[in-house]
Amino acid sequence: MTNNNSAINQLIADELLRFPCFGDAKKMKKSADELLSVIQDAYENENLSEDQDMAFEAVLYFHEIIDQFDLRRALTIWDQGDLAVFEQLTSTFRKKKSN
Q1: Model confidence at 6, in pLDDT bands (50, 70, 90)?
Q2: What is the pLDDT of residues 58-75, one digit of tens each?
Q3: Which of 20, 47, 68, 98 could form an S-S bond across to 42 if both were Cys, CB 3.0 to 4.6 Å?
Q4: DSSP readout, the chain?
């Protein structure tokens, strides 16, 4: 699901770690590739919390790796910190698409 390109993986990992729901992942001290592998495995085995699941899907959606993201559900379950990060990422991606 995630890209084999280390630069893209680094970007995705950095974006995921901005979400407060992934706060524990910051303590893992893994490379971006390793971190994404752990997160992807947890996602595929349904071992992420729902807020983490939504954050992972949102970031993959922004990078056009997946084509669906349930925004309505994310807005329901995310806390203010996660919503703020989502808003920042949305703004960043909107600017990139307009250039």
Answers
A1: confident
A2: 999 999 899 999 999 999
A3: 47
A4: ---S-HHHHHHHHHHHHHSGGGGGGGGG---HHHHHHHHHHHHHTT-S-HHHHHHHHHHHHHTTSSS---HHHHHHH--HHHHHHHHHHHHHHHHHHH-
- Describe the crossing of helices 6-18 and 80-98 by its angle, rounded to 10 degrees: 140
Write down the mean pLDDT value for the chain: 91
- Separation CA 32–CA 13 (nearest Å): 6
Tell whether the model's pLDDT for residue 94 goes beyond 90.
no
Q: How many whole angstroms separate alpha carbon 35 and alpha carbon 20?
A: 16
Could you tell me the CA-to-CA distances from 10 to 3, 84, 91 in Å, in that order? 10, 21, 20
- Residues 41-56 have a mean pLDDT of 97
For residues 57 and 66, is the Cβ–Cβ distance under 8 A? yes
26, 17 Cβ separation under 8 angstroms: yes
